[in-house]
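Sample pair:
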Amino acid sequence: MRHLPITFLATAAAIIVACAPVENQRGYVPDMEAISSIQVGMDTKDTISKKLGDPSTSATFGNDVWYYVSAHVEQNAFFAPRATERNILAVEFARDGKVTDVHRYTLADGRVVDFSSRETPTRGRDYTLLQQIFNSVPGRIGQPGPNQQNPGGGGPVPGPGR
């Protein structure tokens, strides 16, 4: 009886610790001194690569832009991870390879993009749960037999081998 409060406190502490979120830092963590040393019109791709390293990604279409992406992510138990902080540094280059502009974006600048909200209908028919279960059983349980197609026909259709 004397150990009951200690056991209860230990169990409560274990439950509280198990609910603590797991935090991760992902991507490029920018060095503020290196970012502030970028000079528009003076720096080139080579000098930016030396100052900041290789970019996380670069623009595929349009302007020549290097992106340095970092995110602070938290995950509670089995729930999906969520970003609590995101920083994106975009360094834009001209055709001659010199820096034309530097942009900084945060999580507040982001927005959710719905790539496709439409569904493509499939041919055939939608089966109920019971139809799916009976169709997975070997034999002709879920399929219409010759007697089921004719309403005046006889009894049940036997399975294979009968």
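The chain has five helices and five strands.
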